[in-house]
Amino acid sequence: MQWKTDWGLRARMVVTMFLLFALYIVFVAVLWEYSIFWMLPMMAIFLLAQFFFSDKLALYSMGAKTVDESEYPELHRTVERLSQQADLPKPKIAVADSRVPNAFATGRSKKSSAVAVTTGIMDTLDQDELEGVLAHELAHIKNRDVMVMTIASFLSTIAFMVVRWGAFFGGGNRRQGGGGVIVAILASLVVWIISFLLIRALSRYREFAADRGGATITGKPAALASALMKISGRMDKVPKEDMRDQAEMNAFFIIPIKSGVVGKLFSTHPSTEKRVERLRDLERELEGF
């Protein structure tokens, strides 16, 4: 299979990014108008630090440890082969001792990337299915998804911080009238809510793109579809305490930990059923050649 651009998916991502950009232009204007614009450099430093150390933070939060070839030779060989097929440098490989069957990729660039898997997913999937999951994560790296999502969420994070600490940061303006500070905080709240929904939509689009990219790398869409169904089914059997410990990593996982109706509404991922349906369509498309 050749790496092809999904133009319909690309168009939706472009529209979402445009709406975010327009929203953030209005937000910056409000910050400027009410003298809270000075917060941006300080927040930028904080987010840049998070961006440059995102790989280490993600691995640490999952308890994943980088492993060498002597510890997991087959996993290393598989990732190396798939990386060559994807025209990517081989990423660092990490393993988390967890019963939750999942995997994720992190890193701000192709050269600083890492792919992590849990012991649970290696016990759950066969070789073809595991390759499909690893290829999905490599597609995230190839598409630079960590960088895209970090940039997209930059001002959204600032809006959240203005809402949370707006009274403190705007204290100097109270002498001139507290109304401006209140307006800025309310505007920040609106921006944060709308951008939260748009970023979730963007994340779901990028999961579809990574599914297609992973199937392209392996040439086996059915294997990835089978892996998604197995992981989804296994999630219900994992102890709830394990789920709670790792739910904060949902945005990184190949399949998020379920969290009820509200959680699904604001999920970072499309439903497993929709993802499997698209992969099966891709399988039929391949069979037609």
Can you walk me through this structure?
The chain is mainly alpha-helical. The protein has one domain (about 5-285). About 70% of the residues lie in helices and about 5% in strands. The protein is built from 14 helices and four strands. It has helices spanning about 5-35, 40-50, 55-60, 75-85, 120-125, 125-140, 145-150, 155-170, 170-175, 180-220, 220-235, 240-245, 260-265, 270-285; strands spanning about 65, 90-95, 105, 115-120. It has a four-stranded mixed sheet with strand order 1-2-4-3, sandwiched between helices. A hairpin with a 7-residue loop joins β3 (about 105) and β4 (about 115-120). α8 (about 155-170) runs antiparallel to α10 (about 180-220). Mean pLDDT is about 80; it is low at about 170-175.
Structural class: mainly alpha
| Helix proportion range | 55-70%
Beta-strand proportion = 5-15%
Main sheet summary: 4 strands, mixed
Low-confidence stretches: 171-177
Cα shape: globular
- Major sheet: arrangement of strands: 1-2-4-3
DSSP, total strands: 4
Rg, nearest Å: 21 Å
Rounded mean pLDDT score: 80
